[in-house]
């Protein structure tokens, strides 16, 4: 630039050979104002029509992130070669990448439009053209456009190029066509880490976590190094498969091998902590996040809010949320979802008002959280108001998730007919989950006639849905018809509809312990049973009466009581009491909905031992303290 300025000062004539390197320097330095001054000199020297100068101008403007000026130069060019086309396409794509998640989808579309114009004008694309085009197809999830680009790639012989091949694999994977991605992957003469990672991430996104794990193992067997992208893919794969403990183990191995976590890693780890309610591990991860200076990342912050909420500590969730300099809809949804899970309906409503005051526009997930909060708190009128607000004011069309929340809300409150009418009036086809939600409400309110119809609806869609059999069986049992209850249980077994075994987890001394009903494996089981026996005596003296109506075993009443005593959550609570200091809160998680007897007995235990017991079941949190549950027995 100094030499260029000296040439101008001495009045020397400028030519295309001068402008091209000067514009390249401006592009590399991101010196937009200097580039504009040079552009003026180009115009004055009548060199703007030169294809090399114009291409250099496009390159300069795109690298300086001034796309409008790049388009202006491009559109004025009397003729273009492949270099100028590539400069424009690559310019749009690189600009798009720098803006990352904040870029508008329109830039992908401009890339595709340019690619079409290039073909119409007879310009032959090369590997530098195909990579951004494939990425644009992936960004738009434009599978058919991607397939056409792939056909052209094969015709031009570019498929063997590792970068193009990797982009083809990535495009198919992001468009959800894993069969095509795998076919291209297998045909490639060689695969690098980028290609392997694209395949692994593709399987993770499609919910095929097991295939992702298998491919990762194959990658390791072939001696390829593991990238913070590949590690992240495997962590997310484990989380998606419900293997939170394995995800945490992988995170520890990643650190042991000296691989530095990035914000995406921490998001995956926090999700794993949330899934297994590993609060202490979550707190340690929070400390690492602070040390690595990743706490300012909005996705990490939102994941921290979500983790603390799902691990039973809304106090910590609110504390993290309140330290955020600003909140987007994702962070608000994490907080509102936390209030919903904890049955804190009033807090959810208050914070929604605050969200609106801050000018954050709610999305469909926001209203799922709000409707869920109303359902768990029994706020029927508020739920109806939010449902109307969503569709009329915010113009957000109701999805199945919203209808399911509304059916659950109405059903729990005893408005069974209104709930059924809502399902019948849905514009979309009901799924098994929404019929099952109403079946669950029929069990709560003892409506046998409607419950039978709902069970039939569920089993028409999912003939081996064990939950439908269990709910109907419990409905019969609750209304005193034990013969029909046993009959439904026999039908379930005949159809081979397997019940999900109940499991309960508790974190004690940095280790997560798992229990099942009538557990015989845990090494402390003799002491645990002794503790349960001691608690049973104390509960009986306090007025506890076991609820055996749902125990269908053809055995004496005493044996039914013993069976109830050995439910997985009771075993976990007993282990927690004998393994922690007096007064320490217990946090447990169960994969199924807590049963009525366990709910009642936990209230008694919390009062007897003077402990706070926090239970997260499949639907929500229950905070037991001094003989009372936060759900107020509305669950």
TrEMBL record:
Keywords: Repeat. Residues 543-635 form the DYW domain. PPR repeats lie at residues 50-84, 91-125, 161-191, 192-226, 227-261, 328-362. It holds the Pfam family DYW_deaminase. InterPro entries: DYW_dom, E_motif, PPR_At4g14850-like_plant, PPR_rpt, TPR-like_helical_dom_sf. Gene3D superfamilies: Tetratricopeptide repeat domain. It comes from the Eukaryota. This is DYW domain-containing protein. It comes from Sphagnum jensenii.
């Amino acid at each position: 630039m100094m030499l260029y300025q000296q040439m101008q000062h001495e009045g020397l004539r400028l030519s295309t050979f001068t402008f091209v390197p000067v514009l390249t320097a401006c592009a590399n330095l991101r010196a937009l104002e200097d580039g504009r001054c040079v552009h003026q000199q180009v115009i004055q020297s009548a060199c703007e029509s030169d294809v090399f100068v114009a291409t250099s101008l496009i390159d300069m403007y795109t690298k300086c992130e001034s796309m409008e000026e790049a388009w202006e130069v491009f559109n004025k060019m009397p003729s273009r070669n492949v270099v100028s086309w590539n400069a424009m396409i690559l310019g749009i794509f690189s600009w798009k990448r720098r803006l990352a998640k904040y870029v508008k989808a329109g830039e992908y579309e401009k890339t595709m439009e340019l690619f079409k114009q290039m073909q119409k004008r007879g310009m032959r694309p090369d590997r530098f053209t195909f990579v951004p085009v494939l990425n644009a197809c992936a960004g738009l999830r434009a599978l058919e456009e991607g397939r056409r680009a792939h056909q052209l790639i094969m015709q031009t012989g570019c498929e063997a190029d590792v970068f193009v091949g990797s982009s083809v694999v990535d495009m198919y994977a992001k468009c959800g066509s894993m069969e095509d991605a795998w076919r291209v992957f297998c045909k490639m003469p060689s695969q690098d880490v980028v290609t392997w990672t694209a395949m692994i991430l593709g399987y993770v996104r499609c919910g095929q976590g097991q295939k992702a794990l298998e491919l990762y193992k194959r990658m390791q067997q072939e001696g390829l190094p593991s990238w913070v992208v590949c590690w992240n893919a495997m962590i997310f794969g484990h989380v998606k498969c419900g293997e939170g403990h394995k995800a945490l183990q992988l995170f520890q191995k990643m650190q042991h091998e000296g691989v530095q976590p990035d914000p995406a890693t921490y998001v995956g780890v926090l999700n794993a902590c949330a899934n297994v309610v590993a609060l202490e591990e979550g707190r340690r991860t929070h400390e690492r996040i602070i040390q690595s200076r990743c706490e300012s990342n909005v996705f990490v912050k939102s994941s921290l809010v979500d983790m603390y909420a799902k691990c039973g500590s809304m106090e910590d969730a609110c504390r993290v949320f309140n330290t955020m300099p600003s909140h987007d809809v994702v962070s608000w949804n994490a907080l509102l979802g936390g209030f919903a899970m904890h049955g804190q309906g009033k807090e959810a409503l208050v914070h929604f008002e605050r969200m609106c005051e801050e000018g954050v526009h709610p999305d469909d997930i926001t209203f799922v959280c709000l409707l869920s909060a109303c359902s768990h708190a029994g706020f029927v009128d508020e739920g109806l108001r939010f449902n109307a607000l969503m569709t009329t004011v915010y113009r957000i069309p109701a999805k199945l998730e919203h209808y399911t929340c509304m059916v659950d809300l109405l059903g729990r409150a005893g408005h069974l007919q209104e709930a059924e009418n809502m399902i019948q009036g849905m514009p979309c086809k009901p799924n098994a989950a929404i019929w099952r939600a109403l079946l669950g409400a029929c069990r709560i309110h003892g409506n046998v006639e409607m419950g039978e119809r709902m069970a039939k609806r569920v089993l028409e869609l999912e003939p081996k849905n064990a939950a439908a059999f269990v709910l109907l069986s419990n409905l019969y049992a609750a209304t005193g018809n034990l013969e029909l209850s046993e009959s439904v249980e026999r039908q379930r077994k005949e159809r081979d509809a397997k019940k999900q075994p109940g499991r309960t987890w508790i974190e004690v001394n940095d280790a997560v312990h798992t229990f099942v009903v009538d557990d015989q494996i845990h090494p402390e089981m003799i002491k645990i049973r002794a503790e349960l026996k001691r608690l049973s005596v104390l509960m009986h003296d306090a007025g506890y009466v076991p609820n055996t109506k749902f125990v269908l075993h053809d055995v004496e009443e005493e044996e039914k009581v013993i069976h109830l005593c050995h439910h997985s959550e009771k075993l976990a609570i007993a282990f927690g009491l004998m393994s922690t200091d007096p007064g320490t809160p217990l946090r447990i998680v169960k994969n199924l909905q807590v049963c009525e007897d366990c709910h009642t007995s936990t209230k008694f235990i919390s009062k007897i031992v003077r402990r706070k017991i926090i239970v997260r079941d499949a639907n929500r949190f229950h905070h037991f303290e001094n003989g009372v549950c936060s759900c107020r027995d509305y669950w």
